[in-house]
Amino acid sequence: MLKLEHLSAAYGQSQVLWDVNLELADGEAVTLIGRNGVGKTTLLRTICGLHPVLDGGVRLNGEQVEKAPAFARARGGLAYVPQGRGLFSHLSVHENLLMGLPALGGRQAARREIPELIYDLFPILHDMAGRKAGDLSGGQQQQVAIGRALVTQPRYLLLDEPTEGIQPSIVQEIEVALTRVRRELRVAVLLVEQYLDFAWAFADRYYVMQKGRVIETGLTAETPTGDVQRYLGV
């Protein structure tokens, strides 16, 4: 289980997260929603070790990791797909996928082989393996970014706005792939998403953030999207 316990974070003297409690069980999908600027991306970065913890804890598989470096958390089973994808645009699709292998450590990383499952989930990556990532469409780049994260064989996958700027047909392909990842690999997914139809179709539970705090949580199956839409409006 991934568990946040009274987590707080800041940028210098400006605190942006206050006392956040959140849980993600093995194989579960949870969506985190809220207006822009409420701290969702900072929360994901803090979980992964890319932003320091001000107070509180991050528990990963029963161990406290809030002081552990990002690479240690990655080897512990965390994978992160940032908003904007974070690809190396001048490298090929294949080379971008290879960048995920060091998180495995040891001999697996040295093999320099991309698991066939990645190409099974996203066939377009096989067809475009030699093309530069910067030449791909936004939807294709998102598939590369998710594939790179899955190369690390994570237990917990954190996604920041995966449908942003992507055409509906590719959004559907991504949803199908992520559903397979959950069911077949038992990978848990924490999803930051503004597109409620996608989030509610995919996630089991939701958390609402407002001004750096979690103010509401519940089951997506029991909560119509209209009941939470007010948290996304300007």
Count of DSSP-assigned helices: 9
What is the H-and-E element order? EEEHEEHEHHHHHEHEHEE
The biggest sheet, with number of strands, parallel, antiparallel or mixed sense and barrel status, is: 6 strands, mixed
Placed side by side, the strands forming the largest sheet appear as: 6-7-8-3-9-10
Helical percentage: 25-40%
Taking all Cα atoms into account, the compactness measure Rg is 17 Å
Terminal-residue CA separation? 34 Å
| CATH classification, class level of the domain at 2-87 and 155-231 | Alpha Beta
Low-confidence runs: none
Overall mean pLDDT stands at 92
CATH superfamily of the domain at 2-87 and 155-231: P-loop containing nucleotide triphosphate hydrolases
Number of strands: 10
Shape: globular
Q: What is the level-2 CATH architecture name of the domain at 2-87 and 155-231?
A: 3-Layer(aba) Sandwich
What is the strand content?
A: 25-35%
What is the CATH T-level topology of the domain at 2-87 and 155-231?
Rossmann fold
Indicate the structural class. Answer: alpha/beta
